[in-house]
């Protein structure tokens, strides 16, 4: 097991972790290098998820570290951030799969569910015997989903009946439990439900021909008079403000994944610059290549510094929505720049999957857009700093 800091961690932020959590992070790094890294390009090219890796992830205690559960205290916010970074620097698709299951789906149940509901669903999700998905975005509602959410819920005796559609739902093709947000016909408020795989009236269809995060199984979901038990409505999920309790937490996680994505591309670029020979010299000895590397490293370092501070604010329970929004928008925007410079450094070889950077190049586009586009997060920040809302 290596004890060296990552090539992309130029200021040594990882050393802020306590020894026990750094040991866990190094074990995760070793696992990813041994078990996951050899698989990622093949899975990405085939647009298939390596289901056989799920028990492997379950065996290394990578799920549920953010939560207190059965006497085990939660890991620090900084550790959970570095876990997301570590996953994404190897494969943003795998990081997204776990982010959806671990952060969005389990997080919704942990934050909005009653104690009985947590006990009902969380144990099997914690062991990864059952997988979760999170269904908020709709075919006609992305950035405006808070106001324009069209999926409806109607209370009918001891049941709720859901009608509508969702789109871009990660893990949606195989998830055992899908956290679904629907507008209650009775009071027009957004409520939170858990729909189990196989429920009559619920279908999931894989979205094909996707060229970012290809390993993630995104799905179109349709609910047609889908009847679920009344106790499948999460007790604390009663308005869109409750949805934001989950998104504020996970938006910070996307920012950490954005750091990992650009760090992974940067590390491959450094290695290539040292070994690729042109004009009789390694290209890393040329000024223009060193300039690219320095600019990439600046982006990675600034982004990492920002998310470390986000973790500190989360630890103190002081992170604001506008701070999470700035981190997500800034880091993913810098990520696009970094992966583009990595692709440039590789020249024509940069568009070949075996050299890896084209995967980060494409995946950065998805990170840039999901869980709040740059523009929407900019408006959240802009409202905070000016006092004026520019939302239409």
From TrEMBL:
One of its GO terms (molecular function) is acyl-CoA dehydrogenase activity. Its cofactor is FAD. Gene3D superfamilies: Acyl-CoA dehydrogenase/oxidase, N-terminal domain, Butyryl-CoA Dehydrogenase, subunit A, domain 2, Butyryl-CoA Dehydrogenase, subunit A, domain 3. Residues 241-385 form the Acyl-CoA dehydrogenase/oxidase C-terminal domain. The keyword Oxidoreductase applies. One of its GO terms (biological process) is fatty acid beta-oxidation. Keywords: FAD, Flavoprotein, Oxidoreductase. Residues 27-128 form the Acyl-CoA dehydrogenase/oxidase N-terminal domain. Residues 133-226 form the Acyl-CoA oxidase/dehydrogenase middle domain. InterPro entries: ACX4-like, Acyl-CoA_DH_CS, Acyl-CoA_Oxase/DH_mid-dom, Acyl-CoA_Oxase/DH_mid-dom_sf, AcylCo_DH-like_C, AcylCo_DH/oxidase_C, AcylCoA_DH/ox_N, AcylCoA_DH/ox_N_sf. The keyword Flavoprotein applies. SUPFAM superfamilies: Acyl-CoA dehydrogenase C-terminal domain-like, Acyl-CoA dehydrogenase NM domain-like. It comes from the Bacteria. Belongs to the acyl-CoA dehydrogenase family. This is Glutaryl-CoA dehydrogenase. The lineage of its organism: Bacteria, Bacillati, Actinomycetota, Actinomycetes, Geodermatophilales.
